[in-house]
Write a structure and sequence with these properties.
Chain lengths: 359, 277
């Protein structure tokens, strides 16, 4: 078992509130990703779960046992650190065995566990080496091995891939997922990389300024962001935001602004009821637009960015900037005026004051 | 002039300056060794005769009979080793606390400790003596050792070194089930070996030839350290500089030997702090 419950979890460092009243249930065997920009409180939350940071108020429970005053060593939780935190003066074998040795596990049992973990991770040949002699990827595996041998109820990952180069990061990401499927242990993973979060998490927890913004499966968070922050944080290139005014005409709802006028399907316009003439923020993802002579958005091409599979067009729409993804076969020239059609099912609108999603 | 020639000339100039520096530094030592194998009169000969006509090895055994130098050597060893051990233990513990534990006024504590570096021994001599006397430690090994057993520079050295050890190592060890003392013993100490080496060397060297404090606190012959023995030679026979030099040569041997032995650790340890003493 390994169900983690966070109840009104709060942490302040004097004046600064790092984590504010976080409530979250992480189910046994689930892979949950805490996602957010630097300083959003995700690492502090993780460190509180690990027991490395004192809790200001609230509770942390693991399988119904309150962990608040339990020493880190007694929590049955293992952590993979961002900078690996391998003991430089110990061989790989000793690094992996250290936690078991401290728990007074019998020598042959330690040996069996270390070798088994090394087998899973493919690092049997490295056991005699020292961390200083290992590559980044190898160190990463040893760190994982050190966590695995303890057979903990919960694994914590603090941005474990951030020190790897791009290629190795993708590869290790896949291996981590396979490992998670193999071990089926509860995992809490902190990252600021939304691609990691999208590809790895059973659920994503988006945090901002110490507060949870949204919790949900990756695609749901992507498609139905709870607010403008989540909408802007998830997705690359980011969602476009343009100022718009709500218009009702002949029973239909339009989002109108400089260079665009977007009709909304009736079933999606409910959130705008009674907001005639109000300023709102219109949001659309780059991939939710396509070129078309009848398009509702008009703009001039400023920058053309071919990325191979697609082309990203940076347009000037009524003086504001907008990015659109188009097929790689499209031929464009700078300064050309184009029209784009927005997918009405994918149009978003946010309250400019609170950022809350209206559509 | 080409760049290569300039570089070569620069290199040659540095070599000449370095060799010059070495000669200046070594000359007094050479003079000491040379004087130790001369007769008492030859010592004052001008111009200086660097290598005497007849080498007076006999100065060495003769000098050793002029006092209880066996006892003095032993005392110096005991004091230097004990002070070294004290520094290794206390400076490392203090350095660990100041580097890795969050507590109120930590920086102030550190600065207060550092500020004592600005006080020369002469200033604290009297108050220290009064404390040692109150504790009944005058004319004991304890009195010779205790006031020197922890040193602000050592605390500084160890704090800098321990500060460079990532916090995550300590946290990983804590999660691995290591006790707080276990973290110090198994994680911190092995990872600051160069600094420990440097500290050991500095503490030994400084205290092997420590003069002023033993001079104040040890008045009986059986507690005198080597430098005190050497100093009293002047009083016994003011002309015996050849023998004093012979003793000085003998006194230099342990420090030189330890320096050669720990040289690498010493240099690494000092560069760790980014400062020289």
């Amino acid at each position: 078992m390994g169900e983690v419950l966070l109840e009104d979890l709060t942490k302040d460092f004097g004046e600064v509130i790092a984590v504010k009243e976080v409530n979250l249930t992480i189910h046994d065997g689930e892979f949950v990703v805490l996602l957010g920009p630097s300083g959003c409180g995700k690492t502090t939350t993780l460190r509180m779960i690990a027991g490395l940071e004192e809790i200001t108020s609230g509770r942390i429970l693991l399988d119904e046992r309150v962990l608040n005053d339990v020493h880190p060593r007694d929590r049955d939780i293992a952590m993979v650190f961002q900078n690996y935190a391998l003991y430089p003066h110990m061989s790989v074998y000793k690094n992996m065995a250290f936690g078991l040795k401290m728990r007074k596990v019998a020598k042959d049992e330690i040996d069996r566990k270390v070798k088994s973990a090394a087998g899973i991770l493919g690092i049997e040949t490295l056991l005699g080496r020292y961390p200083g002699k290992l590559s980044g990827g190898q160190r990463q595996r040893v760190t994982l091995g050190r966590a695995i041998v303890r057979d903990p109820r919960v694994f914590l990952f603090d941005e474990p891939l951030s020190n790897l180069d791009a290629k190795l990061r993708v590869q290790t990401r896949v291996e981590l997922l396979k490992l998670h499927q193999h071990l089926a242990a509860t995992s809490i993973y902190v990252t600021h990389d939304q691609v990691e979060a999208m590809t790895m998490g059973d659920r994503i927890v988006v945090m901002h300024e110490g507060v949870i913004q949204q919790v949900g499966p990756p695609m749901e968070v992507y498609q139905n962001p709870a607010n403008q922050f989540v909408a802007g944080f998830i997705g690359s290139p980011a969602m476009n935001f343009l100022s718009a005014t709500v218009r009702f005409e002949a029973g239909r709802t339009f989002l109108e602004g400089a260079g665009f006028r977007i009709p909304l399907p009736t079933e999606r316009a409910g959130g705008l009821a009674g907001r005639e003439g109000d300023e709102i923020v219109f949001g659309i993802r780059p991939e939710d637009m396509r070129l078309g002579a009848e398009g509702e958005i008009e703009g001039a091409v400023e920058i053309i960015e071919p990325v191979g599979s697609d082309i990203f067009l940076d347009l000037s729409v009524g003086g504001a900037s907008l990015t659109a993804r188009v097929e790689s076969s499209v031929r464009m020239s700078q300064g050309e005026r184009v029209r784009l059609h927005a997918d009405p099912a994918r149009v978003h609108a946010f309250d400019p004051e609170t950022g809350v999603t209206l559509v | 002039m080409s760049r290569k020639t300039m570089l070569r000339l620069g290199g040659a100039l540095i070599s000449v300056l370095t060799v010059g520096g070495v000669v200046v530094m070594l000359l007094p030592y050479f003079w000491m060794v040379s004087s130790s194998i001369k007769t008492g009169i030859e010592v004052f000969d001008l111009p200086i005769k660097w290598i005497p006509d007849e080498i007076q090895w006999v100065n060495y055994p003769n000098a050793l009979t002029k006092g209880a130098f066996g006892v003095y050597f032993f005392n110096s060893f005991v004091v230097a080793f004990a002070v070294m051990a004290g520094n290794l233990v206390f400076c490392t513990l203090a350095g660990y606390g100041l580097a890795k534990f969050r507590f109120p006024h930590r920086e102030l504590c550190f600065r207060l400790i550092l500020s004592t570096l600005m006080l020369p021994l002469e200033i604290v001599l009297v108050p220290t003596f009064l404390v040692v006397r109150e504790l009944g430690l005058v004319n004991t090994y304890g009195g010779l050792i205790a006031p020197l057993a922890v040193d602000a520079f050592g605390v500084f050295l160890m704090r800098q070194s321990i500060r460079d050890i990532p916090d995550s190592l300590i946290e990983a060890a804590r999660m691995d089930g290591c006790s707080e003392f276990g973290i110090f013993w198994r994680i911190i100490l092995p990872n600051c070996k160069p600094a420990l080496g440097a500290l050991a060397l500095l503490a030994f060297r400084d205290n092997w030839d420590q003069f002023l404090w033993p001079f104040i606190v040890a008045t009986t012959d059986d507690l005198k350290t080597f430098p005190l023995g050497l100093a009293q030679m002047e009083g016994i026979d003011s002309a015996a500089y050849h023998e004093i030099m012979a003793l000085a040569v003998l006194g230099m041997i342990p420090a030189a030997f330890i320096f050669l032995f720990f040289q690498r650790a010493f240099v690494r340890g000092i560069t760790l702090t980014g400062l020289k003493e």
